[in-house]
């Protein structure tokens, strides 16, 4: 029989333990942060009716959907984000769930896009949303969640850029551009990437607006610097627009509320140029960048929307939420060697030293686990050197060696792998306390 | 615009918070148990080249694969289990990983099978395997892991049935049936379901063996009762087969090792009739049933295999593992109302009482979270009654009410929702200790 080449599809990847361990840790951290704010977990199917998924994002998103006919002849697709499934879910279940409904969802999504460094066709997103309220408190809370989330994952230097799309809408109204909102915002969204000049040119060409109109939009976007200073300058730039004035009040509330919630001011930026490509944001908008890795773009984005599930229900469901690109963040950390050094899932290895003592090693292991010490037993009674080499290579903290003499004398040797030192510790199956104490101390001090 | 009906595909389901919370808890418990034995997490893509997946299970499995051509014209499929991806993964990465390699993998799989109560086309499996050793220690450990896993999830009454396929092989050899192993085992596997008579009939018809031969096989399978007694009777029934004798020694080691590892004897059964449908098991075989729900079948099965990745590599990789049908277990628990009563992800609700105090509520929430108390702030300043009704309905433990008077007097009211009692507690943003203590005490006592 000829062998089948073991390989993954282009744009897909395996997660080996050294990366999967911190990845699992990140997901668990995210769950704990979300829960501490009262967000509850949900899950939805990977496959949805294609009609649920298609036509919800851009044409590009539509092309990227993995789609096929299932065995029952149904047109189905794999979800490309967690927002469209949330909209479908909310339309279907909101009667049971009630509002406000706060959910998080941590799950993979698929996009058949062209691959590039750090971008995959399968990646985990980490979304949270508050549905059924237009309260500014929910907007503020979203900023606080983003801050907690990144802090808990281990980042200190990051910037959460905040905007309120209503200010832009007011300005566009003021300059007679209300019907050009979508193409103007699309162009504006590229400002950081392609610069002022090219954005100006694209606005005039694609949105078909005048050079003066483009100047007015870009004047707002150029409003930069300290948050309180930007907030103070905005009324002047948008003078004459009541819509913009209301938007500025709300943006100020979000900013000051975030500060009251404990978000450090150094991490907050008012950036009236961010608009997000998606058309459905109608109020607050967020983007988050790592100060030391700005080139990877926003790693946590979101905003307020007026009507989440209008495609599926007549019930009006406003809400706010954001999405952390967990795998994107992980790929960046991996690329930059920021991931914690690989360690073993259990910190202690019991060396399988004396074949006749197999059941004793197993009992010792059960005893240690019952006392909260994770422990692996080497499965084969190989030479001591080989087993210690394995322990070293995998990153165990300590190895326990016990042969006939040690068992006879109710003790064992604990080898500290980092220092290559050995300690004799008393042990019997009936009294593991001394060994537990030594191992816990060694694991804690690592 | 006409509405699109919000619905899930047949055989798929949404997980609402009341079910998703215990489901997440189960997954987290499983991770902790696996890690405590030194198993490390991995992840693999949902989509694989179809040639990796097809022809690995039965014809039925092949038909059930969700398969399609991707945009690049590749034939791809969604994984139907976690074993085939593990085989591909091991073939690809074992050089880097080294052996013994112990991994766990908790992830959904897809099978387009006919749906029935409690069975879905998308479900989470929870697998663990030890690769690269033939040691009986790994077999014993697998039994210990299954025991810990179910105990940690919350079960007490379950039975782990153990067999060693080698004993059956010896018996088949003895009766000249070595070349009929597969059809005989296929029939034998149905014994519990269809009974002795029908199994006998099927063996004779499908495997084309004599009635006497079928009797001999079924005599072994009828060996029932106390584990040590069964082990003592087996040599007689298989007398004359050296293969069977070796198999009995190994099975005895697994049983006694499991007991040494702390698995209660009441949960262990020697069942020489279990063979598992899959052809690749070559040694130990496990099945696990819930004593109070035997009708749902095995909820954790596995066994030893000789050569995991023979389709993809010439490297010989023996191993042992088992798979917990996590969603199947969850569906059974849900059906039988065994799931814990829904509770909120955060136990405390801050009532949004006084609109002018928004930033104070947010500060209080941040303060409590920083002290380890999960807390949700109601987003809208609705009437007190409506907010307390929400708190009651969602299952919060306590609600905090603070209006102008309370803030002025540096205190707040803590309403215990179960007892409808109210306590006055001192609170300032600078000194939250008293409030933290009261809330922690209330959450702990629930």
Structure overview:
The structure is a homodimer of 446-residue chains. Chain A is α+β, with helices and mostly antiparallel strands and 446 residues long. Chain A has 2 domains: 292 residues, Bira Bifunctional Protein, Domain 2 (BirA Bifunctional Protein, domain 2), CATH 3.30.930.10; 97 residues, Rossmann fold. Helix content of chain A is 42%, strand content 20%. The first copy, chain A, has 16 helices and 16 strands. In chain A, strands 1-5-6-11-10-9-7-8 form an 8-stranded mixed sheet. A 5-stranded mixed sheet of chain A has the order 13-12-14-15-16. The interface between A and B is large, with 109 and 109 residues. Chains A, B: This is Histidine--tRNA ligase.
Query: What class do helices, strands and sheet pairing of chain A give?
Result: alpha+beta
Number of DSSP E strands of chain A: 16
Number of separate helices of chain A: 16
Oligomer: homodimer
Give the integer mean of the pLDDT values of chain A: 92
CATH architecture of the largest domain in chain A: 2-Layer Sandwich
Proportion of β residues of chain A? 15-25%
> What is the CATH superfamily label of the largest domain in chain A?
Bira Bifunctional Protein, Domain 2
CATH class of the largest domain in chain A: Alpha Beta
| Biggest interface, CB < 8 A | A-B, 109 and 109 residues
- Into how many domains do the coordinates of chain A divide? 2
Uncertain stretches of chain A: none
Shape of chain A: elongated
What is the terminal-to-terminal distance of chain A? 49 Å
Largest sheet of chain A: 8 strands, mixed
CATH topology name of the largest domain in chain A = BirA Bifunctional Protein, domain 2
The neighbouring-strand order within the major sheet of chain A is: 1-5-6-11-10-9-7-8
Helix share of residues of chain A?
40-55%
For the CA atoms, what is the radius of gyration of chain A?
A: 28 Å
Domain Aminoacyl-transfer RNA synthetases class-II family profile (chains A, B): 1-345
Catalytic activity (chains A, B): tRNA(His) + L-histidine + ATP = L-histidyl-tRNA(His) + AMP + diphosphate + H(+)
Binding site for L-histidine (chains A, B): 81-83, 111, 125, 129, 276, 280-281
GO molecular function, one term (chains A, B): ATP binding
């Amino acid at each position: 029989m000829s062998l089948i080449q073991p390989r993954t599809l282009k744009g897909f990847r395996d997660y080996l333990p050294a990366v999967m361990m911190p990845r699992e840790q990140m997901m668990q951290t995210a769950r704990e942060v979300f829960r501490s704010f009262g967000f509850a977990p949900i899950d939805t199917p990977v496959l949805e009716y294609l009609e649920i998924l298609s036509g919800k994002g851009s044409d590009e998103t539509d092309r990227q959907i993995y789609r096929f006919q299932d065995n029952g002849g149904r047109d189905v697709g794999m979800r490309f984000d967690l927002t469209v499934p949330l909209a479908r879910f909310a339309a279907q279940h909101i009667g049971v769930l009630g509002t406000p409904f706060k959910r998080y969802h941590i799950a993979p999504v698929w996009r058949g896009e062209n691959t590039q460094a750090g971008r995959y066709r399968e990646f985990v997103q980490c979304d949270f949303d508050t549905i059924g309220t237009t309260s500014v408190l929910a907007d503020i809370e979203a900023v606080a969640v983003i801050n907690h989330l990144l802090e808990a994952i281990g980042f200190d230097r990051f910037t959460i850029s905040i905007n309120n799309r209503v200010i832009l809408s007011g300005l566009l109204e003021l300059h007679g551009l209300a019907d050009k909102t979508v193409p103007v915002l699309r162009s504006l969204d590229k400002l950081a990437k392609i610069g002022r000049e090219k954005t100006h040119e694209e606005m005039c060409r694609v949105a078909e607006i005048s050079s003066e109109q483009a100047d007015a939009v870009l004047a707002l976007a150029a409003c930069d610097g300290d948050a309180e200073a930007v907030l103070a300058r905005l009324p002047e730039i948008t003078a004459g627009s009541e819509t913009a004035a209301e938007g500025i009040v709300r943006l100020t509330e979000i900013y000051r509320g975030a500060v009251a919630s404990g978000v450090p001011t150094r991490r907050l930026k008012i950036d009236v140029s961010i608009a997000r490509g998606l058309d459905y944001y109608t109020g607050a908008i967020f983007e988050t960048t790592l100060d030391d890795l700005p080139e990877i773009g926003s790693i946590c984005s979101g905003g307020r929307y007026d009507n989440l599930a209008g495609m599926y229900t007549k019930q009006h469901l406003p809400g706010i939420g954001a999405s952390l690109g967990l795998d994107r963040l992980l790929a960046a950390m991996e690329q930059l060697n920021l991931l914690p050094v690989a360690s073993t899932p259990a910190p202690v290895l019991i060396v399988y030293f004396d074949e006749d003592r197999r059941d004793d090693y197993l009992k010792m292991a059960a005893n240690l686990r019952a006392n909260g010490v994770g422990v692996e037993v080497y499965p084969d009674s190989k030479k001591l050197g080989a087993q210690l080499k394995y322990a070293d290579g995998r990153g165990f903290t300590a190895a326990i060696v016990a042969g006939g003499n040690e068992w006879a004398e109710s003790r064992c040797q604990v080898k500290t792998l980092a220092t290559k030192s050995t300690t004799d510790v008393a042990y019997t199956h009936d009294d593991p306390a001394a060994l537990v104490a030594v191992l816990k101390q060694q694991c804690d001090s690592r």
